[in-house]
Specification:
The protein is of the alpha+beta class and 304 residues long. The protein folds into 2 domains: 10-31 and 178-301, Nuclear Transport Factor 2, Chain: A, CATH 3.10.450.50; 40-167, Nuclear Transport Factor 2, Chain: A (Roll), CATH 3.10.450. It is built from 7 helices and 9 strands. It has helices spanning 10-16, 36-60, 70-81, 87-95, 183-198, 202-206, 220-226; strands at 109-120, 125-135, 145-156, 159-167, 230-237, 244-246, 249-262, 267-279, 292-301. The strands form 2 sheets. Strands 5, 6, 7, 8 and 9 form a 5-stranded antiparallel β-sheet that branches. A 4-stranded antiparallel β-sheet has the order 1-2-3-4. The longest helix has 25 residues, at 36-60.
Amino acid sequence: MTGSNPTISGLAAAVLAGGILVLTPACQRSTQKASAPDSVAVAREDSASVRSVVLTFGTRLKQVSLLAPDSARARAMQAQYRGLVAPALLEQWIADPRHAAGRVTSSPWPDHIEIGSIARKSTRVYLVDGEIVERTSADSAGASGRIPVRIAVWKVGRAWMIQNYEQGQAGAGTVDNGEDDTPERAAAVIRAYYDAINAGRFEKAYLMWESDGAASGKSMIEFLNGYAQTKSVDATIGTPGPMGAAAGSRYVDVPVHLLATTAKGGREAFSGTITLRRSVVDGATAKQRTWQIYSAKLKKEPAA
């Protein structure tokens, strides 16, 4: 599912170097600019709203027992997380609590989240790094443990909600479940794709597109030239959608936010969806059975 792109800036073309890019009138460079004080005030207000969402969410973790019976756990998640967690992510947690946030033991329990940093990716996306602080009934002072978390908070309508949640272990990085046939593994391919681009390994990135790169709609040389003026692409990965099936294949849509920086320091932001596919038919090669980039639909938005 590929096609030629409309006429767009070199940087926009380079973001996916041939993936489908859906442009809207908002993609055109606006001649009207908000005054600097107004922009700063809006950013400050948005950052405060994001902080409030994460801190409130952190205080509610202990109210959700992930080991409770399915119906009780679902009710607790709906009661505690609704309005804080994006509906799609909340549905995934209810269906599969293995990747959900909550309490897994009676002691220690997650008491709150301490925010380390809040990074503004665009007018609609913030990335929050912090730690879950654990407590026990024996704690008189201090914490019994800390768990690193990375939380992507996106603007959904008029509300800020948690779109992606990655929790590690005390003293460790984020968890990799090691299973290939999951939406999470598909999302990991997108992370690896932009890691390769930022490392200058463009051939590796090109081959992550289906059909040995042909699904990008570009030849290898065209793909390389597309990134000639791009210094880096900062990718924020959202929660992947549910896995779909059709004609011996599995599909997953992964929401992304991209902030691309040119060699001259210019920046452009894009949000949308990247679709990955893997084959499950008899006779498929090992590579065909892995998640590969199938198509992409992005639209431009104001950069931070």
